[in-house]
């Protein structure tokens, strides 16, 4: 027990000591070289070693320093280099970027952080569509590996043979025998440890359990895989809570696992960028159709082509493979969204309309309802935190040393700004029977914790605290019921307070996140070797666990992408994203506007993107905004790439115009993105968008309706689009004219095209930024 507390507090210090490489030491760098022009992997590697030999005394040394050669799906390598060597390689003409391989984090906070509930299985019957499709689609999960024995990864009845196109394999390793682990469901499994060990040291299994194989000790990857493509498993629950049927979004799709994230000695999970890029190289070659990755670099964000995830997903997009990322858990402050590349999908997390009411009765008279995932009733003495903690601040380091055996402690998040994890650890350390944690209602999410822990809001907490302070005897009698599961009793979805918000700090003219999906209290598969809190102090074993995070939202979208892909195999990743975004909804289950957790305000596009995912509508969006090679070329021009560099990255078809628009005309706004953002509107501009008729009728009439952002006139021309053949494309123009003076405030509107049946909705986000100019002119 002591060890894990120590670990938590020693973490930042230890890590900083650990990560300080002397300036002379070498570090793992990634050297990225764009498309692979040499179509033979052996020759490609030879070429890489040749390049690397320039900066080493011998070819032998060069070979020794190389971790990976990326040779199937794009070209580049990872190697241990010093800064001089890295700089030399960066100057070679073929090289596009050289950057340090960072370690990324998963987008659930650690085990002791958010833990919540389930897939919304009870609310939605499995549709015939889901049963009929998906066999032919392969979803690659980049995560902590897999627990293959989970019933989620059993073959569905009558599952057909593995698709012929599949070139991947199941790699054997520690406690992972492909003969028993892999089947027609789990068709591929690989692991990548070289970058991790180089950057974070060798796995030490006495310190911290891991398997040198695709098997995952940490449950995150098992959880996300079962959310995306898990087979149907009836009557499951977490100690009776959230009982129902577990299933992935595409329960018949195939699963390929790429283990890139590992448990390390600090009881945390890290993923090395060198390993991630290798997983992209292999997965694209293996033939996955969708990649789901619930991790990311934390802001400040590096340029797009200095990040493995952005490079890998760019090449995926060119091969028609959709890549879905989580937005990050850094909300609710603005601009901290991660995974913001325009060629991938970035997913925010929201709650579902399910809660876990937990009734409490104090001194047989005061009744309070909170939320918890407790599985037991508790009868104890309720005591305020001042008795156990210095200044009442519920933090393990501030414990006064008094035992709280047989007591429940009332803690406030606002006293000393403690997190629920601090408070849970503190109560655990004091040997309490439970914790009642009062925090603002905008942040409340019950979690699986090591100690029974009930969330209440500040109002109820205040009531209890004032009652306790009036007592002449210390403490009151408290009876806490086990948590219960309530469905449809509260509005959903609500954007989770932790979900990272836009605008994108790298390219504010591209709205991120793109959309939201369930990421609060998700019940999915879990390795029974790992405890539900992943704490060694916990002695429970479960096959299903409750987690929260944008990590959980991401595989919901991946599953839906697999379904769309199966129904529309010829749609590009951009068309699929468009279908998801333009059909997403912004009203909750009570037909009111969706709220943004972390505040009392309505969710805007920076919270929720285009809206909340609507899988069935996304199958038939009516129109799509596709993005073509030219769109990406314009984008690369915008971020400062020369024609020469662009030719090295982009697959060019005959006749593709690779020129950059004249300076001053380059703007992200003209990408054919399904949302429209103008982050710096100084004067009237006109934006072009092109839509394609993907409806089931060749003749279609679409009328536009517009909600203007505050202070901006919006003129759409034409206002009627007449389609006369299948797959016809028509362009329209949006003129934005500011009629206010502003120094830069975001305002929100929308553009909706409708044929009376489809509603193709794009958020319109404009920041008028003309006041500074105005001042300058008037003072002259
Ligand atoms: C980097 O490594 C090269 C080759 O081993 C060596 O010649 C050079 O001195 C090193 N530079 C620094 C700054 O350590
Ligand atoms: C990105 O890559 C370029 C080209 O190699 C390099 O010059 C630059 O320093 C890198 N930037 C960052 C932030 O890593
Ligand atoms: C965990 O799962 C494995 C594989 O299914 C099984 O053999 C083992 O008995 C299970 N252990 C527990 C504690 O349930
Ligand atoms: C693993 O950690 C233990 C305890 O810290 C240590 O005694 C042992 O030497 C380590 N083993 C390896 C292989 O590093
Ligand atoms: C579901 O499982 C629980 C125990 O986990 C059992 O008591 C209950 O009878 C099961 N219900 C059905 C419908 O099988
Ligand atoms: C907590 O309880 C355990 C078992 O009841 C006991 O061994 C331990 O000393 C207690 N710790 C404190 C700090 O009271
Ligand atoms: C907390 O409880 C102790 C003991 O019951 C009591 O003396 C004290 O006044 C309480 N403090 C507050 C702020 O309620
Ligand atoms: C787990 O720990 C709790 C107390 O922390 C104890 O009551 C229970 O018996 C333990 N269960 C097992 C299976 O060891």
Can you characterise this structure?
It is a single chain. By secondary structure, this protein is of the alpha/beta class. It folds into five domains: 27-100, 2-Layer Sandwich (Alpha-Beta Plaits); 108-353 and 495-608, Peptidase S8/S53 domain (Rossmann fold, 3-Layer(aba) Sandwich), CATH 3.40.50.200; 360-476, Glucose Oxidase, domain 1 (3-Layer(bba) Sandwich); 628-665; 672-780, Immunoglobulin-like, CATH 2.60.40. 23% of the residues lie in helices and 27% in strands. Strands 7-10-6-13-15-16-27 form a seven-stranded parallel beta sheet, with helices on both faces. A seven-stranded mixed beta sheet has the order 19-18-24-20-21-22-23, with helices on both faces. β2 and β3 form a beta hairpin. Mean pLDDT is 89; it is low at 1-23, 109-132 and 776-780. One 2-acetamido-2-deoxy-beta-D-glucopyranose binds next to α4.
Please outline the helices and strands:
Elements: H1 2-19, E1 27-32, H2 41-53, H3 59-65, E2 66-70, E3 76-81, H4 83-90, E4 97-100, E5 103-106, H5 128-132, E6 138-143, H6 178-181, E7 186-191, H7 194-200, H8 220-229, E8 233-238, E9 241-246, E10 254-259, E11 261-264, E12 268-272, H9 273-286, E13 290-293, E14 295-296, H10 308-318, E15 322-326, E16 345-350, E17 354-355, E18 357-362, E19 366-371, E20 378-384, E21 407-412, H11 420-429, E22 434-439, E23 453-457, H12 458-470, E24 476-480, E25 486-487, E26 494-495, E27 515-518, E28 522-525, E29 544-547, H13 550-567, H14 573-582, E30 595-596, H15 605-608, H16 615-618, E31 623-624, H17 629-638, H18 643-649, E32 676-681, E33 685-693, E34 700-707, E35 712-717, E36 720-723, E37 729-738, E38 743-754, E39 759-769, H19 771-779
Parallel strand pairs: 6-10, 6-13, 7-10, 13-15, 15-16, 16-27, 20-21, 21-22, 22-23, 26-30, 32-39
Antiparallel strand pairs: 1-3, 1-4, 2-3, 5-12, 5-14, 8-9, 11-12, 17-25, 18-19, 18-24, 20-24, 28-29, 31-33, 33-37, 34-36, 34-38, 35-37, 38-39
Helix pairs in contact: 2-3, 8-13, 9-10
The chain binds 2-acetamido-2-deoxy-beta-D-glucopyranose (NAG) (8 copies).
Keywords: Hydrolase, Protease, Serine protease, Signal
InterPro entries: Peptidase_S8/S53_dom, Peptidase_S8/S53_dom_sf, Peptidase_S8_Ser-AS, Peptidase_S8_subtilisin-rel, Peptidases_S8_3, S8pro/Inhibitor_I9, S8pro/Inhibitor_I9_sf, SBT
Active site: 143, 220, 551
């Amino acid at each position: 027990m002591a060890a894990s507390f120590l670990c938590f507090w020693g973490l930042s210090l230890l890590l900083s000591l650990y990560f300080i490489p002397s300036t002379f030491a070498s570090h793992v760098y990634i050297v990225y070289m764009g498309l692979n022009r040499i179509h033979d992997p052996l020759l490609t590697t030879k070429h890489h070693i040749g390049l690397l030999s320039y900066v080493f005394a011998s070819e032998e040394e060069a070979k020794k320093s190389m971790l990976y050669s990326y040779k199937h799906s794009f070209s580049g390598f990872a190697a241990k280099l010093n800064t001089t060597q890295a700089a030399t390689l960066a100057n070679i003409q073929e090289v596009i970027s050289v950057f340090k391989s960072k370690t990324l984090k998963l987008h659930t906070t650690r085990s002791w952080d958010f833990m919540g509930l389930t897939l919304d299985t009870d609310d939605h019957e499995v549709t015939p569509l889901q049963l009929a499709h998906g066999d032919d689609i392969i979803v690659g999960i980049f995560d902590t590996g897999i627990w293959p024995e989970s019933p989620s990864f059993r073959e569905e009845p009558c599952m057909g043979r593995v698709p012929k196109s599949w070139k991947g394999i199941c790699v054997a390793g520690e406690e992972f025998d492909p003969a028993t682990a892999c089947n027609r469901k789990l068709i591929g499994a690989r692991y990548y440890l070289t970058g991790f060990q180089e950057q974070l040291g060798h796995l030490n299994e006495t310190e911290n359990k891991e398997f040198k194989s695709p098997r995952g000790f940490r449950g995150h990857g098992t959880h996300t895989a079962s959310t995306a493509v898990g087979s149907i498993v009836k009557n499951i629950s977490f100690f009776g809570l959230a009982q129902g049927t577990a299933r992935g979004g595409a329960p018949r799709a195939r699963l390929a696992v790429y283990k890139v994230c590992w448990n390390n000695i600090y009881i945390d999970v890290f993923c090395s960028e060198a390993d991630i890029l290798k997983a992209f190289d292999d997965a694209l070659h293996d033939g996955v159709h969708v990649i789901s990755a619930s991790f990311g670099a934390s802001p400040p964000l590096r340029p797009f082509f200095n990040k493995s995830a952005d490079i890998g997903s760019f090449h995926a997009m060119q091969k028609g493979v959709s890549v879905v990322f989580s937005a990050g858990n850094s909300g609710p402050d603005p601009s901290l969204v991660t995974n913001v590349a325009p060629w991938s999908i970035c997913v925010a997390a929201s709650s579902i309309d399910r809660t876990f009411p937990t009734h409490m009765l104090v001194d047989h008279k005061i009744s309070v309802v909170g939320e918890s995932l407790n599985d037991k009733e508790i009868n104890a003495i309720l005591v305020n935190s001042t008795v156990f903690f210095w200044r009442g601040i519920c933090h393990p380091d501030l414990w006064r040393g008094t035992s709280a055996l047989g007591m429940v402690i009332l803690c406030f998040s606002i006293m000393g700004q403690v997190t629920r994890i601090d408070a849970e650890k503190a109560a655990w350390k004091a040997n309490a029977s439970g914790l009642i944690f009062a925090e603002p209602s905008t942040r409340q999410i019950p979690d699986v914790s090591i100690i029974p822990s009930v969330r209440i809001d500040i109002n109820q907490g205040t009531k209890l605290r004032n009652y306790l302070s009036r007592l002449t005897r210390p403490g009151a009698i408290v009876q806490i019921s086990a948590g219960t599961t309530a469905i449809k009793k509260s509005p959903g979805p609500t954007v989770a307070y932790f979900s990272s918000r836009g605008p994108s700090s790298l390219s504010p003219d591209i709205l991120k996140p793109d959309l939201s999906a369930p990421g609060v209290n998700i019940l999915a598969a879990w390795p029974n070797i790992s405890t539900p809190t992943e704490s060694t102090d916990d002695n429970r074993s479960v096959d299903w666990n409750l987690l929260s995070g944008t990590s959980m939202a991401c595989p919901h979208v991946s599953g839906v992408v697999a379904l769309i892909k199966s129904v529309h195999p010829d749609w590009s990743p951009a068309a699929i994203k468009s279908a998801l975004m333009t059909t997403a909804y912004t009203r909750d289950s009570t037909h009111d506007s969706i709220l943004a957790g972390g505040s009392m305000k309505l969710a805007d596009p920076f919270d929720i993107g285009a809206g909340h995912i609507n899988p069935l509508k996304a199958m038939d969006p009516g129109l799509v905004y596709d993005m073509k090679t030219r769109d990406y070329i314009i984008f690369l021009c915008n971020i400062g790439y020369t024609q020469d560099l662009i030719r090295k990255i982009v697959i060019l078809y005959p006749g593709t115009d690779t020129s950059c628009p004249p300076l001053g005309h380059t703007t992200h706004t003209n990408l054919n993105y399904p949302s429209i953002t103008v982050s710096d509107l100084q004067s009237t501009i006109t934006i072009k968008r092109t839509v394609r008729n993907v409806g089931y009728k060749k003749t279609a009439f679409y009328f536009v309706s517009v909600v203007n952002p505050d202070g901006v006139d919006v003129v759409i021309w034409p206002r009627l689009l007449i389609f006369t053949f299948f797959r016809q494309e028509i362009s329209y123009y949006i003129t934005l004219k500011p009629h206010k003076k502003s120094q830069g405030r975001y305002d929100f509107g929308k553009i909706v095209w409708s044929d009376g049946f489809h509603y193709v909705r794009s958020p319109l986000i404009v920041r008028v930024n003309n006041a500074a100019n105005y001042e300058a002119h008037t003072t002259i």
